[in-house]
Specification:
The chain has a single domain (3-127), classed as Rossmann fold. 25% of the residues lie in helices and 25% in strands. It has helices at residues 13-20, 40-50, 84-96, and strands spanning 3-7, 25-29, 53-56, 74-77, 107-110, 114-118, 123-127. A hairpin with a 3-residue loop joins β5 and β6.
Amino acid sequence: MNLRLLLDESITDVLAQEFKSMSSLNVECCRELSIKGASDPDVIAYAVKERRIVVTTETGMHDGPFPVCTHPGIIVLAGRSRHESIHAGNFKKFMLSGHRKEAKDAVSFISQSEIRIKTHKENKKFPI
């Protein structure tokens, strides 16, 4: 089963193409949909309706404003580097880590050194 993702507008076109090239993903991009320019709550509402995990580089989109289990999931591409190839590489490592199923209904932070997944039960950290 393909992971259903909604790429937030913070995801660059170059990075979006990296995601779209991964055969294990079913990807939609906010900037290509009717929700282009929508607020974060509207993006989350669309993701809930379409059962898609939101992928963003915005660290403000997390479990504070969007509590765990109120959406299909949020993946934040975090870390110091903003380079598309590094984010794409980190995401590929996440996909191969064996933890991608845990991103459902959770808030996940992926950086160069670790994956942090916040669920309604616990917070987990895994080296990447």
